[in-house]
Amino acid sequence: MKFLCCKTLFRDLIFHPDVVAFCCAKVVDELLCFDKYNGEVITKEIYLKARNKIVDKFKEGIIPEVCKKCHNLEEQDWDEEVGFSVLSLAYKTKCSICDCFYCTLSQGDAKRKKEQNNLVTYDIRPILENFKNENLLLPGCAISVSGGECCEYPDGELEYMTYFAMLNNCVIEYLTSAIKYSDCIAYALATIPSKIIVSVDSGTKEMYEKIKRVKAYDIVWKNLKKYIDISQNNPKSDIFIKYIIIPGTNDSIEEARKFIEKCKSIRCKKVLIDMEFKYISANLFNKAEGSLKNVINYFDKVSREITDMYINFTPDCEFWCKKQIDWS
User: Fold this and answer.
1) How far apart, in Å, are the Cα atoms of 78 and each of 136, 213, 270?
2) Cα 244 versus chain centre, distance
3) For residues 202 and 255, is the Cβ–Cβ distance under 8 A?
4) What is d(CA 149, CA 225) in angstroms, rounded to the nearest whole number?
5) In this structure, what DSSP letter does residue 215 have?
């Protein structure tokens, strides 16, 4: 049966501290798998019952308002077999070594930051083990460790996730600030299908400290170089350095140019360009102007000119940024 829907509804699951969602971009009631969640084991039957409540609405043509403008929405004959391609583990919130002013968790508020750093959440291990036992992990399933700062997880927890991914034909992905070097991450990058994504968002120490609000610029680049060096002999590992464009802050060609030069200096081969999420949401149909338009065009230009480095916009912002380029 052909109907308008989204691939993430069938293949993704995102674990937050108190809810489980189908979509990482919009954590709203219409897209929740489970509300008031506290680590209960999710069986295939329980998951399918929750998913069908939403899928049935899509089949009837009842599209949640937050989905109507999404670029992932498409009409096709969907494969409704249960199996996960992406498990996003964002159930942790502690991040005491960084303080990005655009953080979606703390929202730049010191009190909220403290609360997030002290929040105790559930154990993910029984949940993952059950998925394995019920054969719900598709080959190459991406396990994204994306909650808080994974280098601050309790002893053994990050190691467990890494070992679990290795044993179950999964790709492990770490979202980290790279302020703290992790032997576990280094091991994964050297030996198994793995990747890290580090948002540096700057090409100068001054801009880094303005955005991250910590003095760790040199440490981050040093650790990134160590990760790159140790991964050289593992073709199944990837290191992505990200530049999140924040309008009015780091949207200058000079800052972007210095960022690319820093990436070159440590032999980084993969760069991701992103846009601050709330800005895109608020300006979905607006044209970029001035310095913002210029920096988008700059990154597009270097992505075609620099042939020995992968430079591209993330899927979530590509549709918007490409429109700006087409409008130029």
Assistant:
1) 17, 45, 32
2) 12
3) yes
4) 19
5) S
CA–CA separation, 74 vs 76, rounded Å?
6
Q: What tokens does 136 get?
A: 């719900």
pLDDT the model gives residue 31: 86
Q: Would you say 260 and 203 are in contact if contact means Cβ atoms under 8 Å apart? A: yes
Name the H helices within the chain: 7-11, 44-59, 110-118, 125-133, 157-167, 183-191, 205-212, 217-230, 253-265, 277-282, 290-305, 315-327
Report the alpha-carbon distance of residue 201 to residue 210 in Å, rounded.
10
pLDDT digits (tens, 9 = 90+) for 158-208: 999 999 999 999 999 999 999 999 999 999 999 999 999 999 999 999 999
- Residues 43 and 54 sit within 8 Å (Cβ to Cβ): no
pLDDT of 228: 98
Report the sign of the C-alpha dihedral through residues 140, 193, 8, 19, in that order: positive
Determine the pLDDT at residue 281: 80
- What is the amino acid identity at position 261? E
**Global pTM value:** 0.94
Nearest to 192 by CA among 221, 217, 168: 168
Q: What is the DSSP annotation of 225-283? A: HHHHHHTTT-TTEEEEEEEEE-TTTT--HHHHHHHHHHHHHTT--EEEEEE-HHHHHHT
Judged by phi (left if over 0) then psi (alpha if -120 to 50, else beta), residue 240 lies in beta
Please say whether the dihedral angle defined by the alpha carbons of residues 96, 97, 100 and 104, taken in this order, is positive or negative.
negative
Q: What are phi and psi of 293, to 5 degrees?
A: -60, -40
pLDDT, tens only, 198-238: 999 999 999 999 999 999 999 999 999 999 999 999 999 99
